[in-house]
Write a structure and sequence with these properties.
Number of domains: 2
CATH topology of the largest domain: Growth Hormone, Chain: A
Distance between the termini: 68 Å
Radius of gyration: 26 Å
Largest sheet: 2 strands, antiparallel
Membrane topology: Multi-pass membrane protein
Strand content: under 5%
Oligomer: single chain
Biased composition (Basic and acidic residues): 22-32
InterPro entries: Battenin_disease_Cln3, Battenin_disease_Cln3_subgr, MFS_trans_sf
Biased composition (Polar residues): 33-51
CATH architecture of the largest domain: Up-down Bundle
Number of helices: 17
Strand order of the largest sheet: 1-2
Order of helices and strands: HEEHHHHHHHHHEEHHHHHHH
Family: Belongs to the battenin family.
Number of strands: 4
Shape: globular
Length: 517
């Protein structure tokens, strides 16, 4: 907010009067007003109290009075801390999910008696038959996606009542537990339970952090999506490097235990790195009343922001119980916000316009995860045509290459922004990839693994572009009062597409494995 931007309280002593920002800061320091009308705030009991403007330090939740110059103090939504913070949130939130998919073949070959996962086999000099597992990696995909889908479908109807801080705690604990369960598993069922826990945490995290992004500048969406792409490439590559016999050659268990550092980074990022804007509810551990976001607050501050023109945008921000002495009017995000709790009827009505964004994303994710978890495990090359990689190593590096494509495209939305009308075309292109690789699994007509690797990178590029541009278009086109709900609801699209892919991958695996090579 620049110098001279007027602030108006809910009830002004004289209509049309306002106090310039630089004078308000001066009066705060001097504790007196000599040249401007005094502001007041009327509460529900009819009493009037002086409107104390408190500008706490960005990452603090206390009653700090530190005030920085509006010219030098960056808006909460566009600061470097927030951009980096959302990148790390995206990275950590999707990390366990990606690792579970990269370890899918190892998980399905967990030996019930010894409690050890599969060790990588050497490449075959000549492939004369299909080496099919009894259970498709699509089963791991279902365990990795169904809990997330349940969370994403049900959460938009009640999740706004749960503070972001409490949601974050649940996500971090779930991620730690998932690594421990899978790493210590002695059976496929126990390993799949760990995958389920990872999925639940990832689903809760995605719908929460995308909703949190609605309080910030739109640039954090690009950083979030880039972080999720980074989770793919870093998670898949870390697991491949740690377990590959030509590299570090860790056991799958040791590789999973080493990844417990990720939840620690996750916790630090939200509670210490991110600069939360004033409209976000804070949880105080010693105050149980803050454990839920109140649906009706005692006060509403109306802040009018004039941005160099006569047009005024109204922002409503409910004040939380007991926050009268800690009000923060420094709402300086790049664009006006009007965040409020929607009624159940409003939420249901807001879903209908979102389907035009959701359907292309569903198709894209169905096609690419049908490839990744239904077909790639069946695409094996011999030593001379597969860089001397064993079948398990080939599968792991397929996952890495896919994630590289996702990362590149998700990180490029600020450079190449696609309009909404292009999204259905991306879906058709991804379906073509799925059909091509289905016939490759049947007939093995691709001559070298390098060609397949190129196709997999291209597949990732399409998927990442569809993801980031869908959310960018929603963030741009949806009205501010429905933006938080819409961002969260659209996030079920990719999950639903992946769910369909998991159910389709299992019978496709069985059909292909019954065919002679």
């Amino acid at each position: 907010m620049s110098d001279g931007t007027p602030l108006r309280s809910l009830h002004q002593t004289s209509p049309g009067t306002s106090l310039p920002y630089h004078e308000l800061r001066k009066n705060l320091r001097d504790r007196s007003v000599s040249s401007s009308p005094r502001k007041s705030l009327t509460n529900e009991r009819g009493t009037t109290a002086n409107h104390r403007v408190s500008m706490p330090l960005a990452r603090g939740d206390g009653d700090g009075d530190a005030i920085s110059s509006p010219e030098r103090r960056p808006a909460p939504g566009v600061s470097t801390h927030n951009l980096v913070g959302f990148w790390i949130l995206g990275l950590c939130n999707n990390f366990a999910y990606v690792v579970m998919l990269s370890a899918a073949k190892d998980i399905l070959e967990t030996e019930s008696g010894s409690g050890t996962m599969n060790v990588t086999h050497a490449c075959r000099e000549k492939i004369v038959d299909r080496q099919c597992q009894e259970l498709s990696t699509g089963a791991v995909l279902l365990a990795d996606i169904i809990p997330a889908l349940v969370v994403k479908v049900t959460a938009p109807l009640y999740i706004q009542m749960i503070p972001f801080g409490l949601r974050h705690l649940l996500v971090v604990v779930a991620q730690m537990l998932s690594f421990i369960l899978v790493g210590s598993s002695s059976s496929v069922s126990m390993a799949l339970l760990g995958v389920v826990v990872a999925s639940w945490g990832s689903g809760l995290g995605e719908i929460s952090y995308l909703a949190l992004a609605s309080y910030f500048d739109a640039k954090v969406i690009s950083m979030w999506s880039s972080g999720t792409g980074g989770a793919g490439i870093i998670g898949a590559m870390a697991y491949a490097i740690l377990t590959d016999p030509l590299m570090l050659h860790f056991s799958p268990q040791a590789a999973l235990y080493s990844m417990l550092i990720i939840p620690m980074i996750f916790a630090y990022t939200y509670w210490y790195l991110l600069e939360l804007p004033p409209g976000v509810h804070r949880v105080r551990a010693c105050d149980p009343k803050t454990y839920l976001v109140p649906s009706n607050s005692d006060y509403v501050i109306r802040v009018r922001q004039v941005s160099g023109s006569d047009n005024e945008s109204e922002i409503e921000r409910p004040l939380l119980d007991g926050d009268e002495e800690n009000e923060d009017d420094n709402i300086t995000s790049a664009s006006p916000r009007h965040q409020r709790l929607l009624s159940m009827y409003e939420r249901l009505g807001a879903t209908i316009p979102l389907f035009k964004y959701m359907l292309p994303l569903i198709v894209v994710y169905f096609a690419e995860y049908f490839i990744n978890q239904g077909l790639l495990e069946l695409l094996e090359f011999d030593c001379s045509h597969g860089f001397n990689l064993g079948p398990e190593s080939q599968y792991r590096w397929y996952q890495v290459l896919y994630q590289i494509g996702v990362f590149v495209s998700r990180s490029s939305s600020d450079i190449i922004a696609l309009p909404g009308k292009v999204l259905p075309l991306l879906a058709l292109m991804q379906v073509f990839n799925a059909v091509l690789l289905y016939f490759e699994a049947l007939d093995s007509f691709i001559s070298h693994i390098f060609i397949l690797m190129f196709i997999i990178v291209y597949e990732g590029l399409l998927g990442g572009a569809s993801y980031v541009n869908t959310y960018r278009v929603v963030h741009t086109e949806i009205p501010p009062e429905r933006k938080e709900f819409s961002m969260g609801f659209v996030s079920i699209s990719d999950t639903f597409g992946i769910l369909l892919a998991g159910f389709t991958a299992i019978p496709a695996h069985n059909i292909i494995c019954k065919q002679p090579l």
